[in-house]
Description:
With 138 residues, the chain is of the alpha+beta class. It is globular. The protein is built from 5 helices and 6 strands; from the N terminus they run βββββαβαααα. Helix 1 (57-69) links the parallel strand 5 (43-51) and strand 6. The protein has helices at 57-69, 88-91, 100-113, 119-122, 134-137; strands at 3-8, 13-18, 24-27, 33-40, 43-51, 76-81. The strands form 2 sheets. Strands 3-4-5-6 form a 4-stranded mixed beta sheet, with no helix packed on it. Strands 1-2 form a two-stranded antiparallel sheet.
Amino acid sequence: MEFSFxxxxxxxxxxxxxxHLQILKIVDKDGRYIIILGFLHNIKCTLVNVYAPNIGxxxxxxxxKVILSQFSADPIFIGxxxxxxxxxxxxxxxxxLPSDRTLSVAFRELKKSLAMSEIWRGNIxxxxxxxxxxxxxx
Length: 138
């Protein structure tokens, strides 16, 4: 198999693409996302790598929601860095920031509109079971 490496150096987004597959690639002009449309084990799907900005995340998420809704008929796999906390009450060891509520709502709207679920969060039985939280809960 032959592989090629695609890098958007300005925003440090990287994704590995198998070159012999028929794919459609959509790259954000600001380097904030790469969308790959193709087939994975003969199933049409969309792969997305996101690197959200440090400021203006709510606007970015709203724009991303509109773009990804075009592909919602097929499975969408999203990874990357959204530069926000999904649930400030659980994800922060310090009090939530003023912007957390707005960003959490925008992120929930994105997840709801695309019927997304967070695999990592969905597999956690008890947040207290993670050692990282032991020092903050004592």
